[in-house]
Design a protein that fits this description.
The protein is of the alpha+beta class. Helices cover about 25% and strands about 25% of the residues. The chain has 16 helices and 25 strands.
Length: about 700
């Protein structure tokens, strides 16, 4: 689509009861990011109340019409996805604005590949709109969904705001409040808010009176309808000065868990009675049956958890029922999927068949194909596969044939047990479900999933190629183009994604694999290039972006030396003296391990002074370059440990050693460092953005 164009969703798909809108971008440095927001507008182009403003502190609509699903890695950057149940949108809402914003002076011109895509209920991509240049704006309206009679349409907008999310939200009638006292209004910032500007290549929807007529004629009419006019002085006077409930845009802080209650057991050998026992699981079939029943029952009894699992698959928000061991006709022999999920909304049913595998067993193409055919014939919406494996971008786990001649299309989705555990952790430890009984159910589910006997412990095997590749690297017999190296690279990517899920669940923060633009846009070509690099250098590398951390957590596995390295680079302060920087850094690392390596980074890339924390604590001056003219650009902190030799997740396995290395480095090093100077913004009534502490 081009800026200002619009299209009817019913002309693109018959499955538009629900939709997934994805906003994406990439960064040349690999560190740029933005936050999405959604506004529901009435016929006057304003929110009905502040509750119609959805962002990171208000991610889910009570009626299920809007849900912010969070970020996922995509291509060379990330995508922030939003689920819309268009059948649940209140009748008085005529437009849905989808926007994104940056924080603390960051601009969209610093990001690449700004885009918005929309997919229907079966996951079929319907449209794509690319913003060529974000320009010097800190908020952009990417597009909007709007009603025309009985149908929904989408308009590509691409409208920029210099005043950021504060100015954009305020112009749509949202009353903004900061967690701190509001400072005196800044006339320049207020003026910027009242006159949103477009990014280069786009045109503002509302023009000040002084804009020449020649500029006005260049504005597409479709864009003029898309963005509201600034509020007039009369409207400002009529607006209430204080509302009862106002959105706070500084991020909420999760309360720490309460201290565990002391057990009444006579000795430590006693075990608590469990709703979901892990004993008497004799074989894989028993594990699959019990795991499916345990998960689906909790999804039905804890609506917020069930919604969190099914929303990414296009399911509406409604009454959920789950079933196991359902018999469905298929030729001469009936089929029995492991489970069925049904959601009722306004008299309509959304149905998904579930195929489950545990204990590392692979999914079978013929089974999944049969369920896809059954779902298509019966008018079901989706087939969900669930296993220990982690899906890769652009690489389906199961190859199935989809008959495009069928009027009814079925979506195929995959879910990892690690993702299920991650969602349970987020709700239990950080977000809550508002009910003690439901919290207890989730805790028992999480205990079951994490028990070794359940078979639901996520990705746990580096594959048959792991040992031959390690031996080939040590013997220098592994050649570029060897398919076994590619298999190891793919499994490394799966492991890194799982490590991100586990760390994010512990912290209650977003943890994503960081991808650099220079690595290319095609996932297959990127993996082939990394496989060749593995053959030459004998190393596997990854970068993790931890929300609120001062830098990327870098993970490197050297297969020649059998050592893991976890590290982070932190920039030098902009003010002060180098010796003061060093002393302050060492004070922050007072609880860090004594074997932590600290290296000074100097301009020009030349290696600077380095040493272990144990040696540097009494002599911090040893970190200063001997050449006084060398400018310090930052510091690199690194921990080393031996890596497991086995391909699995046993105590001596490679997967366990990677998990332990990342966990140890974050808890003992990164958690004690200063937050980055560029943080999430908190908005004031004067439309100024500043970092939320």
């Amino acid at each position: 689509m081009t800026m200002g164009s619009n299209v009817s969703l019913t002309a693109l798909s018959e499955n538009i009861g629900s939709a997934i809108v994805s906003l994406g971008w990439s960064s040349p440095t690999g560190e740029g990011d933005a936050d999405v927001s959604v506004l529901l507008l009435d016929g006057h182009g304003k929110v009905r109340s502040d509750a119609d403003f959805y962002f990171y502190n208000n991610p889910v609509a009570a009626d299920g019409s809007v849900q912010l699903l969070g970020k996922e890695p995509a291509g060379e950057g990330s995508e922030d996805r939003i689920s819309f149940d268009l059948t649940a949108v209140p009748a008085e809402v005529e437009r849905i604005v989808v926007a994104a914003s940056r924080y603390e002076g960051a601009r969209f011109g610093e990001l690449d590949d700004l885009r918005v895509t929309l997919a229907d209920a079966v996951g079929e991509s319907l449209l794509r709109f690319v913003i060529e240049d974000g320009g010097q704006v800190s908020a952009i309206i990417f597009g909007e969904l709007y009603r025309r009679g009985e149908e929904w349409k989408f308009r590509a907008v691409g409208q920029g705001y210099e005043s950021g999310l504060a100015g954009l939200a305020t112009d749509f009638g949202v009353d903004i409040e900061d967690d701190e006292a509001e400072p005196e209004a800044d006339p320049e910032a207020e003026g910027a808010r009242e006159n949103p500007v477009s990014s280069p290549g786009t045109a503002p929807q509302t023009m000040p009176e002084t804009v020449p007529d020649a500029v006005r004629t260049a504005v597409p009419e479709a864009v003029l309808d898309a963005v509201p006019a600034p509020r007039t002085p009369a409207e400002e006077e009529a607006a209430p000065k204080k509302r009862a409930a106002r959105p706070r845009t500084a991020k909420k802080k999760a309360a720490p868990p309460r201290a565990p209650v002391k057990s009444l057991a006579e000795n430590e050998s006693w075990r608590q009675a469990r709703l979901f026992p892990v004993s008497a699981l004799k074989n894989d079939r028993d594990r699959e049956t019990r795991a499916t029943s345990v998960l689906l029952s909790v999804m039905a009894q804890v609506p917020r958890f069930g919604r969190r699992i099914t929303a990414p698959f296009g399911a509406p928000s409604g009454r959920m029922e789950t079933f196991t061991e359902v018999s469905l006709p298929h030729g001469d022999t009936p089929r029995r999927p492991d489970g069925v999920i049904r959601v009722e909304r306004a008299g309509k049913l959304w149905t998904a068949l579930v195929e489950t595998k545990t204990n590392g067993n692979p999914l079978k193409s013929d089974q999944v194909q049969a369920y896809m055919d059954i779902a298509a014939r019966r008018g079901y919406e989706a087939v969900i596969t669930l296993s220990n494996d982690v899906a890769l971008e652009g690489r389906p786990l199961v190859d199935v044939k989809i008959d495009r001649r069928r009027k009814h299309q079925v979506a195929l989705w995959h879910l990892s047990w690690a993702e299920v555990a991650h969602q349970a952790q987020m709700l239990i430890r950080h977000e809550g479900v508002g009910n003690a009984a439901r919290t207890w159910l989730l805790q028992d589910l999480l205990h079951y999933l994490q028990h070794d006997n359940s078979g639901c412990h996520g990705f746990q095997n580096m594959g048959a190629a792991w040992v031959p590749v390690r031996n080939g690297i040590n013997d220098e017999t592994l050649c570029q183009g060897d398919p076994r190296a590619l298999e190891v690279v793919e499994n490394w990517e799966r492991l890194v994604r799982q490590v991100c899920l586990r760390l994010g669940g512990e912290l209650g923060q977003k943890v994503l694999p960081a991808q650099r633009s220079r690595r290319g846009t095609d996932p297959g070509a990127r993996r082939a290039r990394l496989a060749d690099q593995l053959c030459l250098e004998g190393r596997l590398q990854a970068e993790l972006r931890v929300e609120g951390a001062p830098g990327l957590l870098t993970l490197s596995a050297d297969l020649r030396t059998a050592r893991l390295r976890t590290s982070v680079e932190i920039p030098a302060p902009e003010q002060g003296y180098p010796l003061t920087w060093v002393k302050r850094l060492l004070r922050r690392l007072a609880e860090a391990p004594a074997d932590l390596h600290v290296e000074t980074l100097v301009e020009g890339g030349a290696g600077g002074p380095r040493g272990t924390l144990e040696r540097l604590r009494p002599e911090p001056g040893d970190l200063l370059p001997k050449d006084g003219s060398a400018r310090i650009t930052g510091f690199r902190l690194s921990l080393f440990k031996g890596m497991g030799s086995g391909r699995g997740s046993a105590e001596s396995g490679f997967i366990r050693s990677v998990d332990d290395a990342v966990h140890r480095f974050h808890t003992s090093v990164m958690a004690h460092l200063d937050a980055p100077t560029t943080g999430r913004t908190a908005m004031t009534g004067a439309a100024r953005e500043r970092a939320a502490v």
